[in-house]
Amino acid sequence: MPNRTPVAVRALARAALAARPVGLDETDARAPLLRHHGHSYLVPVEIFQDFAALLTDPRRPGGAYRSLSVGGRRWFGYRSTHYDTPALRSFHDHARAHAPRFGIRERLYQDSGRRQLELKVRGAGGGTVKHRTRLAAGDHPLDDTRRAFVSGVLRGTYGIGAPGELAARLVTEYRRATFVADGQRLTCDAGLVVRDPGEGRAVRADGGSVLVETKACAPGRPTDADRLLARFGVPPVEFGKYCGGLAALRPDLAGGPWREAVRTLFPGTVPPCEGDSVSG
Fold it and tell me: Which fold has domain 7-265?
């Protein structure tokens, strides 16, 4: 794939640099959000630039969103390896909104080399609850210790054990900037590439959109970012990087609720269904 910086990554960097910085410790104190509710959006770059400028304006009523800064960096490289069963249990449970739902991934913070195993489950109130454990150099994310961690969380949450056969099904890489307000986080991702870890086949997302996720503690209440995106006419979408990325690589899996978002973010990967409108 050509080594060009997507326009969305450049917009992300400009927005992060324009905002006042906030450190990681203060971010975790103001908006820890291991348990959160939120929405996803595909925001065209030209709208994202105005949206981010308004949210981070120091004169903004209620206070400006600030940009997470770690070691002087304002945007960061992430790589996640997503694990699932041979039958793709996690994928299909999400597609059917089936309970219990969970996702297992290893996350690498590429700028620092820090690794952790994360398990995301659906909380009682419908929000997302994230559990995580650090991985030291040489730790395998599916060794006995980490499987015990997964089993403990799943038994405590749903009364079930960990799936017996787990393997890497998808690798995602992207650049992220995070913006913070009291009780609210806004993650903004660009330059998304999804890869089949077995075959090595990869697909790069369209560079003209930023994937924005709003996250807040309180359920049922839109964040300031949600309200502002509504004013810009940007609707929320159904999209998760594992399910959406797998659907982009495998069109036979593209019939889930994320179909339209995948067609927007990965043009040409999902064929139109019968009855889809065609312009031109």
Answer: Hypothetical Protein Pfu-838710-001 (2.40.320)
